[in-house]
## 1
Amino acid sequence: MVKKEKNIITGIDIGTKEIKLVVAEKKKDSVIILDLKKTASKGIRKGKIVDSPPVVESIRKVLDESERNLGFPIESAYVAYGGHFIKEYERKVELNLDSKRRRIVFSDIKEAMNLALEDVESIGNVIHAFSIDYGVDNEWGIENPIGREASLLKMHLFVLEGNKEEIEIASSCAERAGLKVKGIFHKSVISPFGCFSSKPDELVLYVDLGAGTTTASLLKGTKVLNVDIYPVGGSHITSDLSYILRIPLEKSEALKKIVSINEPEENLDDELEFEVNGEKIVCRVGDVVEIIKHRIEELFIDLILNDLQRKKSLDYPSFSKIVISGGVSKMQGLPTFIQNLCGIPVEIGLPALDMPENERGSDNVSIAGLINYTIFKEAHPYAILNSCIGGGAISFDEEDPVFNSSIAEKVRKAKQKRFKGQQVKKVIATFKKVIKELF
Ligand SMILES: Nc1ncnc2c1ncn2[C@@H]1O[C@H](COP(=O)(O)OP(=O)(O)O)[C@@H](O)[C@H]1O
Ligand SMILES: [Mg+2]
């Protein structure tokens, strides 16, 4: 196998419905998706890993498939997980530069961040840290202060902490599958980067509706202002329909995909007929729509918008639009329904990356986000600061802090042996064939 890690970005998206692996190559001015592999998730409930072995197995499966397809080994990856326990807060600090005015350099940014996180007890759980704003001397509102002359550097930071156990389980699953974990991202943060459609100062709410979780992220341009994750998703709609209409889960899964949540009045009394164990079952379209509406209303009004108002004292019409993504966003009529419900324009977010054909749907926004976020982070090191996970201290190396894992190393060695074995077998087989043909 050819060794090829340089300029390769690999991401694992741990979802309730699927585990996805994406391999991208960073070119000078573009990014190319080399491979995207998916497999059904097992052992994940509402975004949370409740049983690790099946998750490890699924990651190994997509990894093996991809390595075979690409012909080079994949040794490290970024992992996106949807842990329920996250804690966000803001920090404002001032860093006195020298008494004389001087130009700000990148190490001043590092120092300011260290100062901002000085009193954070659980520093090893800080997954994301972003600058909301920078200031110099008496001025705020500076995008990138590097190169500015000042005697005071001011930093306003958004910090996201994850839960130790959730982070460890997610990273150990990837390690046991033979991957070095280059970084852990929370899905609520990366998803908006997968479908950016906002102008620099526009306040946009990005909502990614998956099978077991929904994330809601408020951004101003590319700046993250607030994130939330809810243990509610498409699988709840399926089980609501199954429970209330007394139909098997496979039928309700199919049912929610054929009706429109915005079904016109005259269709509500139509009947949908199907068979379950030889028995005829009839459902009224209006009843199906009512059940689905209930979940969506609960999610958007009682949870997402309510929390935003409570946490940010934000009058929600103050943001300009809602961008929805994730598998559930494919539900017929959903954008119009949410628009009427919240009184804000709603758009479907599509992957802002050149995805393979048949993979350009809104359910792949999180995977595009994994790649775009990594690239954005590299290009804007003053805006997205490195996480503290892994070493328990902030690292500003050129390279991301690679988790120091002996397990990943062992698995990789075992795998290399297996690959060699396979290659030898292949050579012998070809050799035998050639000999046969010769005689
Ligand atoms: N056309 C559709 N209408 C309604 N729901 C859909 C549709 N397509 C997919 N879904 C739902 O989307 C969810 C999967 O979303 P996805 O983002 O792929 O999951 P995850 O990231 O949680 O693994 C499932 O609950 C699935 O039933
Ligand atoms: Mg998803």
## 2
Amino acid sequence: MKVGVIGLGYVGLTLSIASALRGIKIYGIENNSATLESIQGGKAHFYEPFIDELLQLCIDRNFFVSKTFEKGQDLDAFIITIGTPLIGDDKKVNYQFLLSSLDALAACYTGKEVVILRSTISVGTTRKIVLPYLSKISGLPESKIKVAFCPERTIEGKAIEELYSLPQVIGANNSESFEMASLFFKTLTDSIIQVPSLEMAELVKLFNNTYRDVHFAMGNAFNEIAQSFGIDGYSAIEAANKGYKRSNIGLPGYVGGPCLEKDPYILSENMPNHNGKNFIINSRKYNESLEDSTLNWVKSNYSPKAIIGISGLAFKGIPETSDLRGSVAVNIARKIVLAGFKVALHDFTAKNEELADLNLGEVSTDFFELVEKAETVLIMNNSKRYLNIDKSKLEKVIGSAKYTIFDSWNILPQEIKNIEALDIKTLGNYKILEHDE
Ligand SMILES: NC(=O)c1ccc[n+]([C@@H]2O[C@H](COP(=O)([O-])OP(=O)(O)OC[C@H]3O[C@@H](n4cnc5c(N)ncnc54)[C@H](O)[C@@H]3O)[C@@H](O)[C@H]2O)c1
């Protein structure tokens, strides 16, 4: 098969590499010049284990990249993997990139190809936006157009591995579209789940991410409830889960990232108000409310002259990623700065230049420098690298005066917690929510 991929971000690049390595000829287009150059040079523009090595195996062999498609390029399929960010106070999807990707494929679209939409979109978008557009540019009736919605459900940090192992959900507008989409995805995975409509496939993706968001919101709510009884929420949830297979309550923690911060809003788009919609939006807003609770805690414990250290800016630590998009830590850092404080930043995986580009505060080259610089440190993600912090080095930097580290994920090992001068707070024992009126 010869497949055109539009947008070589996290989703487009990992999918292109995984399928090029399975023998498919991939023609990827990317309109960001820096991203394109980096890929052409065999270097991904984001962190993913072994991605550069895998890219170098296929670039210019089975995987060709450029800025645009050419007229007469004879492809079997297009896969659209552009971003779908939210805009405005009502948090609706900005379809500017989807429309520009359709304009880009128009250069060589003939009507015989299947167009696969993989970006996360609101229910009905494939039928209402993509199908009429393709019909218009090809002059064919909508019944003759081949489209499918095939959601991306991999986790950043393990994307290539999961492309080869997760079931692929496919919703198509007719059997020919399904067969063509399925032919492509069968080269990646043994498990294809055919759903009866484009809309069901769109919904499945949104269900998966909204489920996770609500699941974590419940962990945060239970934590707050436990604390209102003077009980450590973290330990209470651990005890409720231990050896009891019918309980898998999420531990308290910040919930963000480029998908979870937006997908519940995308799910609720074009939906009338009802209890189901209120439930998911309230859960999302509840997760978001941890940002203001943390800000309030900083405000009530430190004076604006203080430098607040923030470590773990990437939106999650496991699997490891450098992705700062949708990061709660970045949102909190921004709010702390707006409240008049200075912040100093550190992350184990994101590059220092990326942290500097946030324009929030000084970047520390390592964790110890951050502790030295800041009056307190907030550890915001669960990177496994916190497990290997050198105890004696940390002891030396802290000295004998009391020093507070807010270990939101309770990730620091016991030997670090045992440092006498250290006052450790976690989301479980920290009365971080008590200021949340
Ligand atoms: N990141 C993830 O792990 C993940 C997982 C599941 C679903 N998704 C969804 O997949 C979609 C893509 O996510 P992403 O993280 O890869 O986004 P991204 O922003 O990293 O990548 C999109 C890329 O498309 C390029 N682009 C935009 N318009 C273009 C055009 N007209 N022609 C060529 N290139 C164009 C951009 O420059 C960018 O590099 C989103 O809808 C997202 O919600 C992402």
